[in-house]
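User:
Care to share a sequence and structure tokens?

Assistant:
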Amino acid sequence: MCGAKAGGPDASTAKQGETTIQGSVTRDGVPVAGYVRLLDSDGEFTAEVPTSATGQFRFYAAEGTWTVRALVPGATADRTVVAQPGGLAEVAIAV
């Protein structure tokens, strides 16, 4: 098990202007426990967090195009997201 906080960093720790990628992982509308990975534009691993009890996750990242990969029992799903400087990118992943 990784040492990251479930759900990712706390939103209260965000710095002014920081780029945030966050969202939730569900299966048939129900939150799913698992892990979410952040991959850069070349597909290289950048970070991983376990989902919270409600399927939530959060990353602070540089601007650019990212792949968010949900890894849950029996399924994997990818979503592409474009993070804007200082913006919030919401990602819903249904597996």
